[in-house]
Design goal:
By secondary structure, the protein is α/β, with parallel strands linked by helices. It has 7 helices and 7 strands; from the N terminus they run βαβαβαβαβαβααβ. The protein has helices at about 20-30, 45-55, 70-80, 110-130, 155-175, 205-215, 220-235; strands spanning about 10-15, 35-40, 60-65, 90, 140-145, 180-190, 245. β4 (about 90), α4 and β5 (about 140-145) form a beta-alpha-beta unit. Bound molecules: NADP nicotinamide-adenine-dinucleotide phosphate (NAP). NADP nicotinamide-adenine-dinucleotide phosphate (NAP) binds near residues 14, 15 and 16.
Length: about 260
Amino acid sequence: MPELLSGKTALVLGVANKWSIAYSIASAFVREGASLVLTYQGERQRETVEELAADLKATRVLNCDVTKPDELEQLVSELKQLSPTIDAVVHSIAFANKDDLSRPFVETSRDGYLLAQEVSAYSLISVARALSPLMTAGGSLTTLTYLGSTRVVQNYNVMGVAKAALEASVRYLASDLGSSKIRVNAISAGPIKTASSRGIKDFSKVLDAVAAVAPLRRNTDPAEVADAAVFLASDLGRGVTGNVLFVDSGFQIVGIGL
Ligand code: NAP
């Protein structure tokens, strides 16, 4: 089979460890022949991400906290030296205070709300603004979202509201960047055990509830999300933009599951 991303350079933001959805995506991108650049957030994560990057044969590992404009600027200038163009960017980043993922939503603090929005939604806009000038041959920007954006999922709370803003941002960015042949999409993944999802109260109950009623009667494998990301980043996805693609064993179609 031909490699779907051969000749393309991909930047993947959001690998924290090998359970990260971004790690599965990065692995699939390498399998499909992409040249890979990873980022890490601050010194705390550097060693871990460098080790993972070595396993993946990534060409570079660069620092970037997406809430810091100077770090985004530095990332862009390092990327410019590394590669004439970036073809695919994956934004796999979110954060909310643990307290806001367990207590009633009505008790969300202003600071907690703004933090979740800044890291999990606004960062897609700043990443798009910073990196689109490097995507001179067009390309693809993909983010990760969750069903809690449109439905109430117990304890997802402030992150659901951030994902709603993220999905709306995908549509506005797709509209802005379409004339530069840059496509912007989100993958709505079913629940997957990762460092982030472990912060959500009763997350294992969500996994069980989904597996019981989803059409495929099982949870989502991160490799399935990764293959959808390959499709979106590849020329096979050339007509798809402004879209939310569900990779969730079909759970999103269920009304009442028994
Ligand atoms: P994860 O491994 O914890 O990934 C989250 C990543 O966000 C980490 O690499 C984290 O870095 C990074 N991050 C947080 N704040 C950042 C900042 N200011 N600058 C740069 N990076 C920052 O968890 P994950 O589940 O794979 O999450 C990836 C994406 O998938 C998120 O958008 C999440 O909402 C989405 N998603 C997850 C699920 C699920 O069930 N797991 C389902 C649907 C969608 P540090 O660890 O260094 O803080």
